[in-house]
Amino acid sequence: MFGWGKKKSPWDQYAQNLYGGLVEHNEFGDMTALSLRIPTSLHHAYQNKILLQREMICFVALMQAAYPGTVLHSVMPVYGELVVRKAAERGLQLSRDQLAEASIRDAEAMFSEPYLWSQRWLAEFRSDPEDTFMVALFADHCLKLFSAYKSGIENTSPK
Asked: What is the dihedral angle through the alpha carbons of 64, 139, 100, 9, rounded to the nearest 10 degrees?
């Protein structure tokens, strides 16, 4: 069947609201390619990568807030599938489990060594390894983004 007339579950809507409110419409002042002094020819690649980064950060924040038996625990796999579908639309093929594993590994690296994580993350876009200020600024931004996502998820979760 084509899914016509198929009613969405409340988990689908909640996952879509998380994605739309946090990832798509990033109100937390995402660092732009221009602010990071990334060459114009790499702006599109940066936009794709930072979108995936926001998706992954949101997924890990959701995982941390999703205790068994809570609404968020039911939303978590639905959100993962949503990200997998959106990534597939951009040409990135991965399973929900691969997304979860990659997201967790990435967050662990970001928290354990933020500067080195940021330096590796930005390496493909920058030719100046001595620009330590931008690397540190990007690391700080992503850590704050995670904190904002996690707080937003926890504070708006239905009880």
From this structure: 60
pTM of the full predicted structure?
0.89
- Report the half-sphere exposure of 135 (CA within 13 A, side-chain side): 20
Which residues in 122-134 are b (16+ Cβ under 10 Å) and which e? Answer: beebbeeeeeeeb
Reported as a single tens digit per residue, the pLDDT across 8-22 is 788 899 999 999 988
Q: Does residue 3 register a pLDDT over 60?
A: no
Query: In the block, which residue shows the tokens 């967790």?
Result: 104
Token pair 């998706």 is at which residue? 55
Among 159, 98, 111, CA closest to 139: 111
Nearest to 119 by CA among 107, 109, 106, 132: 132
- Check: CB of residue 71 under 8 Å from CB of residue 158: yes
Q: Give all strands (DSSP E) within the chain, no chain letters.
A: none
Non-local CB neighbours of 127 within 8 Å, separated by 6+ positions: none
CA distance 11 to 14: 5
Which tokens go with 44? 């599109």
pLDDT tens sequence across 35-46? 888 999 999 999
Q: Is 90's pLDDT higher than 70? A: yes
